[in-house]
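Shipment paperwork, digital attachment
Item: protein structure file
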Amino acid sequence: MKKILHLDIGQNRIFGLDLLRMLAILFVVFSHSAAILPSGIYSFFDLFYFDGVCIFFVLSGFLIGSIIIRSVEKNGFSRSELFVFWIRRWFRTLPNYYLFVIILAVLSKIFIAGFPLRTITPFLFFCQNIFTSNDSFFGESWSLSVEEWFYFSIPLFLFLLVRLFNIKFSRALLMVSVVLLLLSTYLRYHVYAHHTFLEMGDYRRVVIMRMDNLMYGVIGAYIAYYHQNFWAVIRHRAMIMGIALVLIWKYFIYQYPSIESFYYINIFYPLFCTAILCLLPVLSRYTLKNYGYWAKAVSYISLISYSLYLIHYSLVKKLFIDHIFYSFFEGEDLFSIIIKNLFYWCASLLGALLIYKYFEIPTMKLRDKIRLKNNAPHK
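Attachment content:
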């Protein structure tokens, strides 16, 4: 059993980013446990809850932005470099995703009466939430769709600016960042002013409403690479500002709780993404030489975070708890609630570990065996 649970944690990991990733996934998993927790307990823990998906978006933007910048500055921005980036991204994200699409489709067909397999079609191409939300099948995959469209479109726009218009890459990156942030700000205000967000279902899960969240991380990567001294000098002041913005963001959540309010649609996400961006100068430089038990636990959860994101809700919560084993978990007494939550967390964590160790790692190794013309940096 010890061998099964063991993970190799490299000593060169950036612990600050592992910490941020761990907090993000735990916030997400906790938020999806609301239906299986007594309301009083959930309300108490909600005081300490922050938007895990926003954290993931900013962190992903920072990591992906850093990869693209280092790769282009080292190898140039050729078509092969663009394809190398896409192939490495898809090897990192798609195998796990499609594994869960298949598992969920098979189990849904078996255990959910009248489940139509055609429901999964848009999920195969990340088209489930481009303009409207869609929770009909694999609800939490909305954020993966946002990321995949970002990974595809932003490097493509950069490539066109650099190759067709002969714009310097660093300038093109800054131009795309500013344009996307301005367009997203205008779009959110427009849908708020005209109430068209009501036609989107849950606008918070729509690709066109959230792609700019990742760009805050890319801006961080831009500053960290092209203005390294500034990034280092401001890190402590930025950390204080980031913490202050997080607290302000949390305060306003309780002042304007409606997701249809001006604050929620127009300010909620930019404010929190800016706060996380401000934390990156410190966290991106925070490494550990010696890992104690707590530090290992942080990196351990960080490593399995992607698999944990995929498994915890649609599979463990909605299928196992709500359908397949419903009769076992249907009680609302204290003992049943404890058992339900223990199963939710243990099944999610153990399942994520097994998927990471015996599926995700092998596919990553397969990716690294592919001999490509250009050798892009690893995430």
